[in-house]
Amino acid sequence: MNGPAIISLITTYVIPELKEHSRNVDGIYLHQAGKIALNLIKENLYKDYFVPTNFEKYGNLVSTSIPVLLKENLKKFNKSKKILICGFGVGLSMSLLKLEK
Questions:
Q1: How many CB atoms are located within 10 Å of the residue 28 CB?
Q2: What is the pLDDT of residues 40-85, one digit of tens each?
Q3: What does pTM read for this prediction?
Q4: pLDDT of residue 47
Q5: Could you state, in order of their start, the residue ranges of all structural domains in the chain?
Q6: Check: CATH 3.40.47.10 for 3-100?
Q7: For residue 82, which of 96, 99, 68 has the smallest C-alpha distance?
Q8: Dist. CA 27–CA 52, nearest whole Å
Q9: Buried b (16+ CB within 10 A) or exposed e, 79-94
């Protein structure tokens, strides 16, 4: 893993995409990449969104981090009208999904 490249991906692509698509969302569910990555993203969002984490409990669960995060926050997820789901990683790629009821 190339830590500096991941941080560059986050600052160059992930944060700008989240800012562009996060208007009026009830929550943002992020891949649980690591404490530094999650804090960097949270510090750069426009307002205090609901951004749950479980990295402290499990570490980086790779491709299962978002499904586990959704399961642990199912009540909040079910009540939400709009959410963003964002995955990113070592392959230096990212994807963003906006779900709206």
A1: 20
A2: 999 999 777 899 999 999 999 999 999 999 999 999 999 999 999 9
A3: 0.91
A4: 75
A5: 3-100
A6: yes
A7: 99
A8: 8
A9: ebeebbbbbbbeeeeb
